[in-house]
Amino acid sequence: MSTNSYQLLSLWPSHVLVDQLSELEDVRETLALEAEVFYERHTRTSAKMAHRADTVSMMRDQPSQALLRLLDAVEQRVATYVRQAYPSLDPSELAITYNTFVNRQRGLGKWAIPHRHVGNQLVVTYYPRVHLGSGEGRDAVGLPGALCFHDPRPVQANWMLRHENKLFAQTPRQGALFIFPGYLEHSTFPLFDPESDKVAIVTNVRFTHRDDRGGDLTWSAEQIRAHSKAQSLNNPMESIQ
Question: Are 94 and 82 in contact (CB under 8 A)?
């Protein structure tokens, strides 16, 4: 990847990497079609999350050569992001996991409400297809289908800022990729034209140090009680106190 091919935006000061994946141009529409198939297979049409295909991972559930090429591109950009945004970390020393799903937004006036990807250090969003119908932009929304980032600072820290400075919005170009922290609240503006269609392949990224064997351990209530009981048996005076 060329070092001059991406932008690293500093917002509030969360970092957002924006790039154009020109190396995937020959398989971009293939990825859009595969995302469509995945979306139709896994979308919960009767649930309130009906806009989202929610499953374990597209990369694991529906592997293909095009998706593996996308994964290679994602790995490269994540390494670049980590080096730029977290200079104290070495990407080669991290154990990184990827969980991929699909969002699709068509001209039905729907939008993604402000949300965060809790528990994930990074979110990578790639747009293999962004088609805006000729009727977009005539409504109140000036940036149809835009990806919006919201100022994460608490009100106490930015009460003097103008309201419009608390939001960064950009309608992604076809083939664009965005990387941003999982804690950064974001949403999308709606699309209204029936011909509009925006497909996003989204990857949640988690990482720990490769030698950290206990960094991601969680414990059930039963395990906690058993551990506490064992500790009390080993230290009877401590339980009396």
Answer: yes
Helical residues (DSSP H) of the chain, grouped into ranges: 28-42, 58-61, 65-85, 155-158, 221-234, 236-240
CATH of domain 6-216: 2.60.120.620
Burial class (CB in 10 A: 0-12, 13-18, 19+), 23: middle
Choose among 194, 193, 195: nearest CA to 135: 193
Tell me the domain boundaries of the chain.
6-216
> Which residue from 177, 205, 170, 204 is spatially nearest to 21, judged by alpha carbons?
177
- CA atoms of 86 and 95, how far apart (whole Å): 15
Instruction: Provide the token pair at 180.
Output: 């941003």
pLDDT tens, position by position, 77-104 = 999 999 999 999 898 898 888 888 999 9
* Interval 141-173: pLDDT, tens: 578 999 999 988 776 555 555 555 578 898 899
CA distances to 98, 110, 224, 239, 241 from 235, in Å: 43, 59, 16, 7, 10
